[in-house]
């Protein structure tokens, strides 16, 4: 792959100070190429959203802080920027859409104005130019009758339309990278497919790179080029989608794939992973997955495994990775 | 613009009628259940029985209660509130000359309260937990704890008696003179009212600062200042409008105390004097006017809410 649009190295999010310090996201590293869609997968609380908020430096509490070696967006190191410079990046180069479009749009402001807000801020456009651009973007995200819809309020839209509107808000400023935080979780399945289709189209038309946060492997299989799996604040496997789904090397990834409900007949019981994810202030020693892992060796309870390249771009953090082609 | 949402403006006044009818009945009965005889109050304790009977007949007070109510309603529909027993003039005319000072007092207080409350709540919410926040919350607690009449007396002592900045009491004649006279009474009410408003506004601003749409605005690169003015403030004003309406309703009848304290010739003062002299017509009339004003304020609050919040649909 060519030089990545986004290069993330050892990104951590830490809560609290001194003794009571808790690491919510632990040294996450990955690259994102232009036009790549990366699926960031993991259970609730595994730190996917927190990691992406850290990229934007939009942490939900002032008690949290970001650490890392580098976060480079097209060569510019975001970690060295101050808040004012970071604001220039947000929206303009690094866009974000959210899980619940209903609450992430201001109910009192017209859709067109919310799209125009970023355009006016980042491109210095006039009110009229911003409105024309907003209509344009609404058309691109597939909102019918954008000339009229530009003056609608969020509550006048359906759930799927709201998500399209929110994508339009993010796209208005023409970002290079879009972070999509579970963009389809709140939508029903047919609408979900439409939104995913839209994101794929936008990638093809604009060369947009997307980080898709999700816990739905079905979504990942349909849209992503590569997958990164997170568990308890750490990245445990990262690689090409097809490789990773067909030949998972990390026992957690394999278990996660096994848990997908099958639509074919014959599976009466849903599979689950026994146990629960660890609390981040009471982590097991060694590998964080070891209490739930089925293939343990001697090192698992001793040493925290680091990410290591296996084949090509495939990386896994496991002392005893599954052999190629062993899984389902 | 979606004009259908404003259709309730046409139908709402019709709903007012049963409300006013109910209020007329309640005030009519309540006024007459005050112990004491208006004829005796009018003529004094050494009046002759003949004179009392004559007065009662003159004002219809010797009729059965339901008959009196019937006449009251009949006259009310003609816009006639009856004759004041004490002043011997048309009650409606009497009330209308007293409305201006009260209206001035209420509007001035509300305006002043907003001018105090919105900036204070903004500073408190944007510096949550800081010294500004603590200071402002101390102010609101003090404002809620102090009775209005006591606060008024303290303001008179400090600003009028000691510093001589404002008149001690009265209303004045010309526009500027009236304004000068009304500063202290308005300030007294505004301080108490803004304490309630600051608490409420601060809480909703804090909530809106944490709201998802504010996060989304941050992700768009907006500055905290822009987010506050464009998203947080409008959203937190929606609940404040209704709180303000409720408080104005309470304030309209609460002006009685302040009008007495500052000797302002408003309808509150008229009401007090009317009750002491058993001036049935005036008390009834004032009660109707106050009720009408309260209902109107809530109606205006509804219109304002529809204007601010596009989701609201009154029916």
From TrEMBL, chain A:
Supply the enzyme class, top level.
translocase
Keywords on record: ATP-binding, Cell membrane, Membrane, Nucleotide-binding, Transport
Q: Where is the ABC transporter domain?
A: 6-257
Its localization reads: Cell inner membrane
Where is it chiefly localized?
membrane
The answer to whether the entry has keyword Membrane is: yes
Q: Is Repressor set as a keyword in this record?
A: no
Reactions catalysed, semicolon-separated, are: a dipeptide(out) + ATP + H2O = a dipeptide(in) + ADP + phosphate + H(+)
Gene Ontology MF terms in the entry:
ATP binding; ATP hydrolysis activity
Q: What GO cellular component entries does it have?
A: plasma membrane
From the UniProt record, give one GO term of the biological process aspect: peptide transport
A UniProt-annotated Pfam family: ABC_tran
Instruction: Tell me which InterPro entries the record gives.
Output: AAA+_ATPase, ABC_Ni/Peptide_Import, ABC_transporter-like_ATP-bd, ABC_transporter-like_CS, Oligopep_ABC_C, P-loop_NTPase
Judging by the UniProt lineage, the source's domain of life is Bacteria
Q: How does it sit in the membrane?
A: Peripheral membrane protein
Function field: Part of the ABC transporter DppABCDF involved in the uptake of various di/tripeptides. Is also involved in the uptake of phaseolotoxin, a toxic tripeptide inhibiting the enzyme ornithine carbamoyltransferase. Responsible for energy coupling to the transport system.
> Which family, according to UniProt?
Belongs to the ABC transporter superfamily.
Tell me which NCBIfam families the record gives. Answer: oligo_HPY (TIGR01727)
Annotated protein name in UniProt: ABC-type dipeptide transporter
UniProtKB/TrEMBL annotation, chain B:
- What InterPro entries does the annotation carry? BPD_transp_1_N (IPR045621), MetI-like (IPR000515), MetI-like_sf (IPR035906)
* Transmembrane region(s): 16-34, 102-123, 135-159, 179-198, 240-262, 282-308
Q: Which GO terms describe its cellular component?
A: plasma membrane
Kindly list the biological process annotations in GO that this record carries. Answer: transmembrane transport
| Compartments it resides in | Cell membrane
Keywords assigned by UniProt, alphabetized: Cell membrane, Membrane, Transmembrane, Transmembrane helix, Transport
Checking CDD domains in the record gives: TM_PBP2
Record's protein name: ABC transporter permease
* Record organism: Pseudomonas thivervalensis
Query: Source taxonomy lineage?
Result: Bacteria, Pseudomonadati, Pseudomonadota, Gammaproteobacteria, Pseudomonadales
């Amino acid at each position: 792959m060519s030089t990545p649009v986004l290069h993330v190295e050892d990104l951590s999010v830490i809560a609290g100070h001194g003794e009571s310090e808790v690491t919510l996201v632990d040294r996450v590293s990955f690259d994102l190429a232009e036009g790549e869609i990366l699926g960031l997968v993991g259970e609730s609380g595994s730190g996917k959203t927190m990691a992406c908020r850290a990229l934007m430096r939009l942490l939900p509490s002032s008690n949290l802080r970001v650490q890392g070696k580098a976060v480079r967006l097209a060569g510019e190191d975001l970690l060295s920027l101050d808040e004012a410079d970071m604001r220039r990046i947000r929206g303009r180069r690094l866009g974000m859409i959210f899980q619940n479009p209903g609450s992430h749009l201001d109910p009192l402001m017209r859709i067109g104005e919310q799209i125009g807000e970023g355009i006016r801020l980042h491109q210095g456009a006039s009110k009229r130019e911003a409105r024309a651009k907003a209509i344009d973007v609404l058309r691109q995200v597939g909102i019918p009758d954008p000339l009229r819809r530009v003056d609608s309020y969020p509550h006048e839209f359906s759930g799927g339309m709201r998500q399209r509107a929110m994508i339009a808000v993010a796209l208005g400023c023409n970002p290079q990278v879009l972070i999509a935080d579970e963009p389809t979780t709140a939508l029903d399945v047919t609408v979900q497919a439409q939104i995913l289709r839209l994101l794929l189209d936008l990638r093809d038309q604009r060369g947009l790179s997307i980080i898709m946060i999700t816990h739905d492997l079905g979504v990942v299989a349909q849209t992503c080029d590569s997958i990164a799996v997170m568990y308890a604040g750490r990245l445990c496997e990262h690689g090409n989608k097809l490789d990773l789904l067909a030949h998972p090397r990390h026992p957690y990834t394999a278990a996660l794939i096994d848990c997908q409900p099958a639509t074919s007949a014959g599976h009466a019981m849903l599979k689950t992973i026994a146990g629960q994810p660890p609390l981040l202030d009471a982590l097991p020693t060694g590998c964080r997955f070891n209490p739930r892992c089925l293939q343990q060796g001697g090192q698992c309870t001793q040493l925290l495994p680091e990410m290591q390249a296996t084949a090509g771009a495939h990386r896994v953090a496991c002392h005893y990775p599954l052999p190629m082609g062993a899984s389902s | 613009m979606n004009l259908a949402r404003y259709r309730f403006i046409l139908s709402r006044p019709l709903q007012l009628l049963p409300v006013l009818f109910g209020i007329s009945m309640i005030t009519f009965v309540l006024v007459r259940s005050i112990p004491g005889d208006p004829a005796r109050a009018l003529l004094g304790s050494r009046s002759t029985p003949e004179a009392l009977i004559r007065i009662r007949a003159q004002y219809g007070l010797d009729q059965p209660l339901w008959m009196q109510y019937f006449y009251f309603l009949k006259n009310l529909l003609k816009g006639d509130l009856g004759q004041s027993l004490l002043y011997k003039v048309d009650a409606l005319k009497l009330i209308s000359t007293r409305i201006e000072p009260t209206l001035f007092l209420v509007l001035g207080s509300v305006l002043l309260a907003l001018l105090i409350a919105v900036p204070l709540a903004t500073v408190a919410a944007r510096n949550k937990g800081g010294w500004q926040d603590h200071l402002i919350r101390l102010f609101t607690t003090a404002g809620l704890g102090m009775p209005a009449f006591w606060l008024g007396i303290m303001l008179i002592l400090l600003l009028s008696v000691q510093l001589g900045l404002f008149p001690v009491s009265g209303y004045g004649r010309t526009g500027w003179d009236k304004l000068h006279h009304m500063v202290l009474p308005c300030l007294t009410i505004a301080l108490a009212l803004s304490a309630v408003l600051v608490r409420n506004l601060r809480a909703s601003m804090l909530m809106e600062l944490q709201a998802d749409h504010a996060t989304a605005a941050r992700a768009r690169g907006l500055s905290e200042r822009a987010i506050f003015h464009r998203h947080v403030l409008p959203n937190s004003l929606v609940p404040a409008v209704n709180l303000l309406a409720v408080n104005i309703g309470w304030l309209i009848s609460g002006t009685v105390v302040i009008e007495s304290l500052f000797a302002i010739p408003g309808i509150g003062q008229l009401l007090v004097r009317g009750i002491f002299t058993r001036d049935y017509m005036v008390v009834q009339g004032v009660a109707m006017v106050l009720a009408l004003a309260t209902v109107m304020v809530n109606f205006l609050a509804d219109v304002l809410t529809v204007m601010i919040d596009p989701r609201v649909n009154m029916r």
